[in-house]
Design brief:
Elements lengths: L4 E7 L3 H13 L5 E5 L9 E5 L5 H7 L5 E2 L4 E5 L2 E5 L3 E5 H11 L5 E3 L3 E5 L2 E4 L4 E9 L6 E18 L9 E4 L8 E10 L2 E10 L6 H14 L4 E17 L1 H8 L5 E2 L15 H17 L4 H15 L1 H13 L6 H7 L4 H8 L5 H8 L7 H9 L4 E2 L6
Helix pairs in contact: 1-6, 2-6, 8-12
Bound molecules: flavin-adenine dinucleotide.
Flavin-adenine dinucleotide (FAD) binds next to helix 1, strand 2, strand 3 and strand 16.
């Protein structure tokens, strides 16, 4: 790289790092920046989805350069005792389109894939090759790590893009089909019709353990497809094991991952929806805020983002409480009742919940009425700490 000192080095080209690079390009074009990603592509192997109303105008504009799938006609949920069609339209972005969009938007010298960062500090980064790159600001957007400072459960899933031999007949995204059997976890199937004979089918679990047995999940998808009389071939597959945070010492968590002078952002920095583990609206809002703050005072970025992260943790306390009820107050096979009841509430409240923007009246409304879990277990859950989010993965 010919630039002697970058204004901003972004480490980690996933959703957070990639959207930040796009936001800087758009809102702070005078700042030089490069996006360092250990893998050969940006975004890994994911499909990210969100509801249209999760993003404000600026947020939607930030994702505009990416090829996305956009559905009209709302979405659906299905439970044993209740099904519902909702108005909100859904959006989805494949990481291959994310990679292509970033490569189109950023200048060539900013694209640094296959660049593993092995050292970072307030003055720059060091790559695995030994190359040292000076930067006025370093933003750490590497993967989130399991941590003994956080507690909760796991969202485990395997998704397959299927090509069916005949039309599959699914008209709109099905966010949760929980009419399936519930084998020791809250299980639902998530369906995204990608075309008349193409569909993304994901088998998802809110589970106590992060174990993912891919063979079992593949078989369950095959059984689900057989139940619908779909003959198919598999086009693509992805898996995920995401923490569902229900408690923790956030200051200790951030301190354990922070490097003096480095801005800690992304899911690693705590910018997640604690209950859904989704990050699209949060990553987009954060990218825009960081880009604007960088134009004002680049040296203040670490403190700026630290205080945003702590505010985000405070703002999302309610979702951690709901997560506790889900994991500790409900028997695994009964967890679906929590969502079944939730989905009977007004749609506007459900929308704000997914965007992590619930109002106080929303919060009270969710908790009023006959609880879907035993009250004594709920009280024990609220008083308990929950399991540390450390199983299965090593830091
Ligand atoms: C399969 C899957 C599906 C998902 N679906 C959704 C969804 O539908 N909606 C939603 O909102 N969320 C979804 N999520 C959650 C969401 O992906 C994550 O919350 C989001 O990707 C986090 O973004 P991030 O940029 O913080 O981290 P990541 O996307 O994990 O990116 C971190 C990046 O840092 C790179 N990296 C790590 N170490 C280094 C290093 N030393 N040097 C350089 N680079 C490094 C990694 O290779 C990686 O690309 C999904 C997650 C998975 C796994």
């Amino acid at each position: 790289m010919s630039i002697e000192e970058l204004d901003i080095a972004i480490v980690g080209g996933g959703l957070a790092g990639g959207t930040l690079a796009m936001a800087l390009r758009k809102h702070a074009p005078d700042l030089s920046c490069a996006l360092f990603e250990a893998g050969d592509v940006y975004g890994g192997n994911h499909r990210w989805s969100w509801f249209e109303h999760d993003l404000d105008e600026d947020g939607a504009a930030l994702l505009e350069p990416f090829a996305r799938t956009a559905w009209t006609g709302g979405n659906e949920v299905r439970f044993p005792g209740y099904s519902r069609r909702l108005e909100s339209n859904y959006r989805s972005l494949d990481s291959r389109d994310f990679d292509a969009g970033i490569r189109r938007a950023l200048p060539q010298e900013a694209i640094r894939t296959g660049a593993r960062v092995v050292g970072l500090d307030g003055a720059g980064i060091t790559l695995g090759t030994g190359e040292r790159i000076a930067a006025r600001a370093v933003v750490d957007c590497r993967d989130a790590l399991p941590s003994e400072h956080l507690a909760g459960g796991w969202q485990v899933f395997l998704g397959q893009h299927l090509k069916t031999t005949a039309q599959h007949g699914i008209k709109r995204p099905v966010i949760m089909d929980a009419t399936v059997n519930q084998p020791g976890a809250y299980r639902f199937v998530y369906l995204l019709p990608l075309g008349p004979d193409e569909i993304f089918v994901e088998d998802t679990y809110y589970a106590d353990s992060p174990e993912l047995d891919a063979e079992i999940l593949r078989q369950r998808i095959a059984d689900y497809a057989a139940g619908k009389d779909w003959q198919f071939e598999i086009v693509h597959e992805e898996t995920g094991v995401l923490p569902v945070i229900t408690d923790g010492d956030f200051e200790a968590y951030r301190a354990s991952l922070s490097t003096p002078g480095v801005t800690l952002a992304g899911a690693r920095g705590g910018f997640v929806h604690p209950l859904t583990s989704y990050t699209v609206p949060i990553a987009v809002r954060n990218a825009l805020a960081i880009a604007r703050a960088a134009s004002d005072d680049i040296a203040a970025l670490p403190e700026f983002v630290d205080s945003r992260a702590k505010q985000h943790w405070r703002d999302t306390a309610y979702y951690r409480l709901l997560g506790k009820m889900l994991f500790q107050a409900a028997e695994p096979a009964e967890r679906y009742r929590v969502f079944e009841r939730f989905y009977r509430l007004p749609e506007v409240l459900i929308s704000r919940f997914y965007a992590a923007r619930s109002t106080l009246p929303d919060k009270l409304r969710i908790l009023t009425g006959k609880p879907p879990v035993s009250v004594s277990r709920a009280i024990r859950a609220l008083l308990g700490k929950g399991a540390p989010l450390v199983q299965g993965k090593s830091p």
